[in-house]
Amino acid sequence: MKLKRFLYALLLPLLALLSACDMEKDIEVDLPDHAPQLVVECYLEPGKPLRATVLESSGYFDEPVPPLVPDARVYITHNGQRVELEYKPTLVQNTGRFYTHTSDVVMDGKPGDMYSLEVADSRGRKLTGFTTVLSIVPIDEVEWKFNDKDKAYLVTSFYDNGNTADYYRYMTHIDSLSNGSDRDFATSDELNNGKRISYGSAYNYEEGDTLIVTLYHIEKQYYQFLSSISDAKDANGNPFAQPSKVKSSVEGGLGIFTNIAFDRKTVVLTK
């Protein structure tokens, strides 16, 4: 009992002292001025017009509006032919994609061909990038199986080339490509080089579902770009996550310039 009384006598003045202290303190942080950079997204797809989206980066506390760059001039070069894209903001309804610069010239590159990108504006900013056209990796099989609760899983299989390091993006959509993807992830063949690779799902689907399955064969630079975006999203707002920077594939700015090589199959799930 004497020990308890001694502890109480020791703690009470300390608690009183702490309660009298102002435990809150305002800290002012001086943030550096943001210097806007050119930002580009440009995906070359065989048989489709050359199109790009050019914006500029904005500060964290800036208004959430697309910072357009009307004076940006965009050039894409292939086999010595340099094409200038016209500034013509366009929203493609069936995909929901927005482009700021377009051309009537169609992408007709073959696997192994190289394309270059150049973006410049009146402020002297200049952005460049390169992409090498990849071949399509065909989907070998799409199969599904129902459990006793009438739910189905999906398995998509393909063969990887054992002579090269390859990267893939796998997506599934329900009913339409204009809807948000049901699954979307990027991966490499590091653990499955030269093997038959299969991507499976949980029992998420029902009889009659229409699934659009897409396998993209992507460049390493695009794989790194996608992975860094995923890491940045996970870190955003999470005080315990390591901050992550988006890995751009372009020089002199931010963004991605790459080509799209894909195989796509549509299946209707039946028992």
Describe the structure.
The radius of gyration is 26 Å and the shape is globular. The longest helix is centred in the first third of the chain and has 19 residues, at 2-20. A hairpin with an 8-residue loop joins strand 10 (167-174) and strand 11. The chain has two domains: 38-132, Immunoglobulin-like; 139-268, Sandwich (Immunoglobulin-like). It has helices at 2-20, 220-235; strands spanning 38-44, 49-56, 73-78, 81-92, 97-106, 114-120, 126-132, 139-146, 152-159, 167-174, 183-188, 196-200, 210-218, 254-259, 261-268. Mean pLDDT is 88; it is low at 6-11. The protein is mostly beta strands and 271 residues long. Keywords: Signal.
Brief write-up:
InterPro entries: DUF4249. The chain is mainly beta. It has helices at 2-20, 220-235; strands at 38-44, 49-56, 73-78, 81-92, 97-106, 114-120, 126-132, 139-146, 152-159, 167-174, 183-188, 196-200, 210-218, 254-259, 261-268.
